[in-house]
């Protein structure tokens, strides 16, 4: 039998040692390079104490249907421009306040873009304005006075 480290023939009884997690059969000279295979050294773990954290109340999540009941106002461009001018800010200063690009603010004021919810909320908070309005249920109701032909009318006619 040969030593797995130096390659010499092992005289006497071989030693089993652990080196870097591997078990090797070695001679007496090379047995000093590892720990005996039967002995395992326990790894000490330091457990840090758990810091108590404060529990914040959860904000209620808005559902998709609640978002559908709100719509951005038609004159959002004028509201943004007038509120910005009322605060005495340039477009660049407002953009820096809400951490957005100035070109984005320009496009809002020219009505080329409609603000996304995240940007709209920033604008409402910084400019102290409301850019959304609730849609009344009357806008959603379909008029019963409409007398035009519908697909349902055609299906009924063919059944007769």
Question: Can you tag this structure with a few keywords?
Answer:
single chain; alpha+beta; 434 Repressor (Amino-terminal Domain); three-stranded antiparallel beta sheet; 5 strands
H and E string? EEEHEHHHHEHH
- CATH architecture heading of the domain at 65-136: Orthogonal Bundle
**Major sheet details:** 3 strands, antiparallel
Question: Could you list the spans in which at least 5 consecutive residues all have pLDDT below 50?
Answer: none
What's the alpha carbon Rg, rounded to whole Å?
38 Å
Distance between the termini: 100 Å
CATH topology type of the domain at 65-136:
434 Repressor (Amino-terminal Domain)
| Overall mean confidence score, pLDDT | 80
Helix content: 25-40%
The percent range for strand residues is 5-15%
- The number of distinct β-strands equals 5
SS class: alpha+beta
CATH superfamily of the domain at 65-136: lambda repressor-like DNA-binding domains
Order of strands across the widest beta sheet? 2-1-3
Number of helices: 7
Question: Which of globular, elongated, flat, extended, rod-shaped describes the shape?
Answer: elongated
Question: Could you characterize the architecture of this molecule?
Answer:
This protein is an alpha+beta fold and 160 residues long. Among the domains are: 1-39, no CATH class; 65-136, lambda repressor-like DNA-binding domains (434 Repressor (Amino-terminal Domain), Orthogonal Bundle), CATH 1.10.260. Helices cover 36% and strands 11% of the residues. It has 7 helices and 5 strands. It has helices at residues 64-68, 76-87, 91-98, 102-109, 117-127, 137-140, 151-159, and strands at residues 15-19, 22-26, 35-36, 70-72, 132-134. The strands form 2 sheets. A 3-stranded antiparallel β-sheet has the order 2-1-3, with no helix packed on it. It has a two-stranded antiparallel sheet with strand order 4-5. A hairpin with a 2-residue loop joins strand 1 and strand 2. The protein is elongated, with a radius of gyration of 38 Å. The mean pLDDT is 80.
